[in-house]
């Protein structure tokens, strides 16, 4: 953990980009499977050493299944029994940042997608926008004319890594995102397949393992658990039922993995924390003096909020925020996140400093911070992520190697 970051936020958990993060997992996969060097350190210890000797390598990305969630939901599960190590996510601990790092091999500092909502300046005469980079929609301004294709060309700047592996690459995603500009960009020339149910996802993957004789890498993305935990929290019965279904799917692959000479990997992009409604701060409603100092709506994540301020108000904003909401968040100058290496190594995206604003409100414990624009309805999320608790930052490295007869 970088010492500056731990000083800014005592008791927090930050990414370990030196050898124990998702970024390092991708570097190891690329090295082992005949892909290019990503410029990032590989996993240390070298957990994946020799994995490329197997005919098939599968990576299942279970969105939201952090280490703590795995232990809580499935202490007797196949997934838990095959957990090899604990890794960290990236910062922020969220899908836009973490999966983009997995798909490109580059850190959030380089790819620049640092939150569900992203400040984006087109460098033209058009006003700056707050964009959701995964669905490629504009949150603000409401009358934006930017199209998904225009946003894609502006925001998705790092080339896809997986198609550069030295073997056939297959990407399996839900049908409702498989053909999105984000998915198409990061799949590149890889073979793409979509599925409409969890059962179909595992059936398609099993069929590939049993029929394909060429060496292959198979990436299966499962976003369903994340969606449920956002809506119901981490401990609901619906979440437990869905986890059991995912674990059953993993077990079904394990049953054919030996014959198919298949190494099964699974991990998550981030973990989760339950966020009770009484610990949710609506900045625009509850603290109008603070909100009036903003030049743009909030961006980033509800647990890692980037604030773009009106000129000359930074010191006043920091002082007032520490007084009014310092119990709920660390109030950090955004440039100190850059100095501390929060977004990882590598060349810095030219707009990174601009995108993270002047101040970051980094949620403590189970607090969350939001605003609601005139065209939006207030949205309460019982489960969230993006912050720097262990529950959000720690993700499992799950590995089952094929057994020899």
From TrEMBL:
Pfam families for the chain: Phosphodiest
Species this chain originates from: Aquitalea palustris
GO molecular function, one term: hydrolase activity
Record-linked Gene3D superfamilies: Alkaline Phosphatase, subunit A
Protein name per UniProt: Phosphodiesterase
InterPro entries xrefs: Alkaline_phosphatase_core_sf (IPR017850), Phosphodiest/P_Trfase (IPR002591)
């Amino acid at each position: 953990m970088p010492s500056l970051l731990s000083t800014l936020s005592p008791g927090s958990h930050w990414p370990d980009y030196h050898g124990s993060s998702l970024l390092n997992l991708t570097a190891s996969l690329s090295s082992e499977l005949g892909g290019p060097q990503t410029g990032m350190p590989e996993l240390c210890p070298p957990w994946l050493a020799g994995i490329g000797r197997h005919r098939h390598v599968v990576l299942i990305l279970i969105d939201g299944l952090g280490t703590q969630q795995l232990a809580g939901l499935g202490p007797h599960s196949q997934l838990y029994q095959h957990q090899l190590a604990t890794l960290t996510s990236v910062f922020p601990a969220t899908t836009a940042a973490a999966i983009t790092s997995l798909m490109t091999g580059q850190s959030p500092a380089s790819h620049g997608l640092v939150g569900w909502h992203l400040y984006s300046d087109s460098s033209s005469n058009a006003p700056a926008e707050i964009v959701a980079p995964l669905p490629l929609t504009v949150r603000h301004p409401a009358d934006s004319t930017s199209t998904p294709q225009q946003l894609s060309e502006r925001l998705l700047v790092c080339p896809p890594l997986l198609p550069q592996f030295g073997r056939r690459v297959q990407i399996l995603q839900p049908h409702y995102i498989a053909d999105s500009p984000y998915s198409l960009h990061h799949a590149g020339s890889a073979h793409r397949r979509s599925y409409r149910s969890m059962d179909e996802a595992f059936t398609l993957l099993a069929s590939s393992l049993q029929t394909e004789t060429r060496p292959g890498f198979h990436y299966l993305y499962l976003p369903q658990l994340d969606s449920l935990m956002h809506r119901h929290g981490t401990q609901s019965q619906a979440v437990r039922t869905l986890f059991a279904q995912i674990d059953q799917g993993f077990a079904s692959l394990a049953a054919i993995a030996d014959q198919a000479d298949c190494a099964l990997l699974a991990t998550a992009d981030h973990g989760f924390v339950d966020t009770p409604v009484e610990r949710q701060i609506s900045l625009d409603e509850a603290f109008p003096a603070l909100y009036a100092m903003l030049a743009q709506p909030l961006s980033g994540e509800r647990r890692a909020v980037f604030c773009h301020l009106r000129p000359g108000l930074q010191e006043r904003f920091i002082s007032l925020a520490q007084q009014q909401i310092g119990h709920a968040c660390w109030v950090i100058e955004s440039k100190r996140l850059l100095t501390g290496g929060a977004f990882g190594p590598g060349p810095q995206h030219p707009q990174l400093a601009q995108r993270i604003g002047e101040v970051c409100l980094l949620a403590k414990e189970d607090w969350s911070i939001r605003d609601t624009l005139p065209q939006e309805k207030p949205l309460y999320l019982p489960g969230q992520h993006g912050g720097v608790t262990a529950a959000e930052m720690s993700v499992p490295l799950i590995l089952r190697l094929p057994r020899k007869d």
